[in-house]
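note to self: dont lose this again. the chain is below, predicted strucutre after it. 171 aa total, dont forget to put it in the shared folder this time
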Amino acid sequence: MLPLAFFLSLTCLWFQATLYAGLPISPFVPFLALTALLAPFRKALWLAALAGLCTDLLTSDPLGLSALGSCASMALCYSWRNRFSAEIPLQFSLYTALFSAISSFLQIALLFLFDRRVPFDGKWWMMQWACFPIADAIYAFVWFAGPLILYRTFRRTWVIYWLKKKDPSTP
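---
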């Protein structure tokens, strides 16, 4: 399930880099949220670093900044994973919104550590703290929850089909 989610994130990152540059989402946040919900902590940190590195390759920020922010977000949000479920799309979307809000805050804090000037006006606060996590939650609900539900359904059907086919007592 995680390789499919990573591929979906890479596809969205590619769309954001080539076709829709103004798309107000973080492509790897739903993947990171799903990773936090399904993987052990050490593997989740490695996958967060990989996702951050993929983002770093397409941004003008210092190399490693997104990877560091993704790992820090994973470390902070990992302890809350017991309150949410990857199986229920609404809970997964809410966890993605929480992950997005924390990730955005950490990215801005890391930019200040590296002396990058980020303008703080009213529009930024409204977009960054209210709309981006909501947009990421909608993105997770549509782009991730739907294909993952289809994947689980097809896999469950496929396994049941092969179990019935191997059982000689089944007519």
